[in-house]
Amino acid sequence: MAKKKLNVAMIGYGFMGRAHSNAYNKVNKFFDLEYEPVLKAACARKEEVVKEFAERWGWESVETDWRRLIERDDIDCIDIGSPNNTHRDIAVAAAEAGKMVLCEKPLAMNVAEGVEMTEAIEKAGVANMVWYNYRRVPAITLAKQLVDEGRVGKVFHYRAKYLQDWTISPNVPQGGATLWRLDADVAGSGVTGDLLAHSIDTAIWLAGGIDKVSAMTETFIKERATQDDPNVTKPVKIDDACAFLAKFRNGALATFESTRYARGRKNQNTFEINGDKGSIYFDLEDAHQLQYFNHGDDDHVHGWRTILVTDSEHPYMDHWWVPGCVIGYEHTFINALADFLKSLETGEAVQPGFREALETQRVCDAVLKSAKTEAWETV
Ligand code: SOE
């Protein structure tokens, strides 16, 4: 059957521009969907860079000003993969022009921007999604299924870590095309918005809303050169590390920790949930496995089991390879995009949309505030 065309424009060409472009190229090869994305236009400020990007990934045309994309009648959907300080203006303008909006995480620089964006999206009634891609790791989706099936029961504890080690050297500069995540004026915050936002999104999804937080942050390296001009050094304003305690609305207690200074940890994103009926543990560095403890097992076989999440009964895996053949990081974006396209078919909103991502933004802002006030802050 002929597919319905969805004309997409991609803003940004970096890590996320590539991850999303890959998803647009592959999604219809692996999922049977009514909709088919058409890679209409790629946009970035530097013409030669965006031309090279468009050619490599199959985008039909290029623009150097995102406002041109908003004006174009042949674009249905704007995908924002550019730095965080651009999200608000693009999302609001796109929504006002009646375009669907996909946005890379975190939603915004802060809650005030997130509210503006969410209100614009909801006023326009346009389809939207925020790319919290880890929800689409099959093992994490399976964790959600186990929670929803009541296999964890009443949750007492949630423990999350998100650790990396790529900023330990004082010689890493800040800002510029590839290191804007280290510049607070562009990123909004450091590990809180970049890494803990993932952990918070997963936590809210699996265990419910967060009521209050008590946080500490640290900036280990106080000054860095700028990527665009190595002779200019600026104070570092991002949080290099953050740890916080949290209380969920359902009474569960949580700890969250994130840093880019955990030597040897490249992208270790873990969580453990302990409930009265069972526990679950996940580590992104073993992404195809989920650990599960079932208190309901007979006493003599009690023990943690490791589920190899590659069978066709497992979330998303019937679209991929045969059991035992694992999928990877890029597939989480393809799975997310498939869910978005499916939502256009069914009319049922995909999650997380802007509204859900705003809730994560509220937790991030409360965490950063608490680190300053050294007091508990309500979300
Ligand atoms: C930061 O290093 C980063 O690229 C994040 O921005 C991504 O969201 C995360 O998934 C991997 O790490």
Commentary on this structure:
The chain is α/β, with parallel strands linked by helices. Helix content is 35%, strand content 25%. It has a nine-stranded mixed β-sheet. A hairpin with a 7-residue loop joins β9 (223-225) and β10 (233-235). α4 (87-96) runs parallel beside α5 (111-124) and α6 (138-148) packs parallel to α9. The termini are far apart. The model has no long low-confidence stretch (mean pLDDT 98). The chain binds alpha-L-sorbopyranose. Alpha-L-sorbopyranose is lined by residues 15, 164, 181, 194, 267. Alpha-L-sorbopyranose (SOE) binds at residues 15, 164, 181, 194, 267.
Keywords:
binds alpha-L-sorbopyranose; 6-stranded parallel β-sheet; 25% strand; alpha/beta; 379 residues; globular; 9-stranded mixed β-sheet; 35% helix
Secondary-structure blueprint:
Layout: E1 4-11, H1 15-30, E2 35-43, H2 47-57, E3 61-63, H3 66-71, E4 77-80, H4 87-96, E5 100-103, H5 111-124, E6 128-130, H6 138-148, E7 155-163, H7 176-179, H8 184-187, H9 191-207, E8 210-218, E9 223-225, E10 233-235, E11 241-248, E12 253-259, E13 268-275, E14 278-283, E15 289-294, E16 305-308, H10 329-346, H11 354-373, E17 377-378
Parallel strand pairs: 1-2, 1-4, 2-3, 4-5, 5-6, 7-12
Antiparallel strand pairs: 7-13, 8-11, 8-17, 9-10, 11-12, 13-14, 14-15, 15-16
Helix pairs in contact: 1-10, 4-5, 5-11, 6-9, 9-11
The structure holds alpha-L-sorbopyranose (SOE).
